[in-house]
Amino acid sequence: MASQFEIKGVHDSLLITVGEGDWADLREILLTQIQEQSDFFQGASLSIDVGEHTLKAAELGSLRDKISENGVTLRAVLSKSAQTNETAKTLGLETHLAKPISERSGQAFDTSVDGDEAILVKRTLRSGNSIVFPGHVIIIGDVNPGAEIIAGGNIIVWGRLRGTAHAGASGDESAIVCALDLTPTQLRISEEISITPPQKGTPQPEVARLKDGEVIAEGWEFHK
């Protein structure tokens, strides 16, 4: 996304946080980004945090309709403006992010764990698509040749990884890359690069990691 926006995965949707600036300009930049990255956003449920921006019904309604034309659903509008919140409610939009079920059930769960942020992308990445994220990247779908993922943490692909993957981009040598079919054009962990040899036999789930300064791939074991 452009520098005016921050995007991350939250629960089952994408959250875009809008920065400061003229709303009309920000709106056009946002819509242009969605159009240019239609493969990435297609079918997504979107929440937008507009911060201090005060939006009238016509402005929010127009934004919702334009986003919908690109196959994206505007689910929620978050704002520090009381007027914007009331407008969003009038249009049937949520004004806060729903908590996970475990937090709403009333039953106490110890869910405190140390870890980094992650983004979940539920679609196939096609040639020309690029994801750059400081935490972990999880893809439910394929990563086609010509697509690129750069993650500060781990990369997990529940599908075929045939594009370029760079895990541990911030220097994390413990990062891993997992895929149900691990045949990337190029695979990189931290500063080490590996070119995948031609696939032999039936594809199987694999995990790639650094061992003794070399990128190696081995069976990705699933445990019940």
Walk me through the topology.
Layout: E1 5-10, E2 13-18, H1 23-36, H2 38-41, E3 45-51, H3 57-69, E4 73-79, H4 82-90, H5 101-104, E5 118-121, E6 130-133, E7 136-139, E8 148-151, E9 155-161, E10 164-167, E11 177-182, E12 186-189, E13 192-194, E14 206-211, E15 214-219
Parallel strand pairs: 2-3, 3-4, 5-7, 6-8, 7-9, 8-10, 9-11, 10-12
Antiparallel strand pairs: 1-2, 11-14, 12-13, 14-15
Quantity of strands, as a count: 15
User: Structural class from helices and strands?
Assistant: alpha/beta
Tell me the name of the CATH class of the largest domain: Mainly Beta
The whole-angstrom Rg is 20 Å
- In terms of DSSP E residues, the strand content is 25-35%
Strand ordering within the main sheet:
5-7-9-11-14-15
General shape: elongated
Question: How many individual helices?
Answer: 5
In round numbers, the mean pLDDT is: 82
What would the CATH topology of the largest domain be? Pectate Lyase C-like
Total domains:
2
**N-to-C order of helices and strands:** EEHHEHEHHEEEEEEEEEEE
Helix content: 10-25%
C-alpha termini separation? 38 Å
Q: Any overview of this molecule?
A:
The chain has 224 residues and is an alpha/beta fold. The protein folds into two domains: 5-90, Alpha-Beta Plaits (2-Layer Sandwich); 118-219, Pectate Lyase C-like. The protein is 20% helix and 35% strand. It has a six-stranded mixed β-sheet, with no helix packed on it. The protein has a five-stranded mixed β-sheet with strand order 6-8-10-12-13, with no helix packed on it.
